[in-house]
Here is the input.
Amino acid sequence: MEETFGSTCHGAGRVQSRSAAKRSLRGVDVARALAARGITVKTGYMSSLAEEASEAYKDVTEVVDITDKAGISRKIVRATPLGVIKG
Here is the structure.
C-alpha cells in the first residue's frame, strides 16, 4: 500500500505506439486473427483496429505475474476476451 498508494496496473501497457501499430499491421488481419480466437470485433474503421492488436501490447500474463510476485496485486481469475469494440 505504501509503495503503490493502493494502485496497480490496469492493463499490460504498449510496446508499440498507435501509429507504429498502424504502420506495421493491417486491421483486416487483426480482425481475422481475433475471429479465429472466437473474439467478436465491431469497428467503425477497419484500419484503426491495428492500434489495438495484441502485438502492440506487452504480454499481460507476464505483467500480472510480476505484480503478483511483487505483492502489488493478487491473481484471482484469468479473463477471456469476448469482443473488441473500436470506434
Summary: DSSP finds three helices and two strands in the chain. The longest strand covers residues 40-43.
